[in-house]
Amino acid sequence: MDKKKVLVVDDELDMRIFISTVFETGGYEAFAARDGKDGLAKARKLLPDLIVLDIMMPGEGGVLMYRHLKSDADLKHIPVLMLSGVGKQTFFHYLKMMNIQPDDAIPEPEAYVEKPPNPDELLEIAETLIRPAA
């Protein structure tokens, strides 16, 4: 049976290693990217089963990458677990403000976890978000 693929996108090396290790020990195949640009390229190449995406990153940050993901026909079906030091309410308010123009609206992420993440919680969320192979 093929392992499910998780792409971890975070600018902090320690966080990428930590989250990748959590998923690898949980039976997943983990891949890492250090920013939104690299993350988007890897998402297109790998077509992962789940993307764990940090919001606050320099350069092409998580919000911009998320917008690209959800507007790309090949990637929009991939569930995204947002991970950030930004409070959930603050992020959802920001997303609501971005979606004032309905023709350009992006959906809410499938899951949102504040840093520091709990390893068991990450794996539980992944299990609920990743669709079983048909």
Strand proportion, as a percent range, falls in 15-25%
The DSSP helix count reads 5
Distance between the termini: 12 Å
What topology, given as strand order, has the largest sheet? 2-1-3-4-5
The overall pLDDT average reads: 86
Which residue ranges are poorly predicted, with pLDDT under 50 across at least 5 consecutive positions? none
Rounded to an integer in angstroms, the radius of gyration calculated over CA atoms is 14 Å
For the sheet with most strands, the description reads:
5 strands, parallel
Count of individual beta strands: 5
Q: What's the helix-strand series?
A: EHEHEHEHEH
> What would you call the shape?
globular
**Structural class designation:** alpha/beta
Name the quaternary structure. Answer: single chain
User: Percent range for helical residues?
Assistant: 40-55%
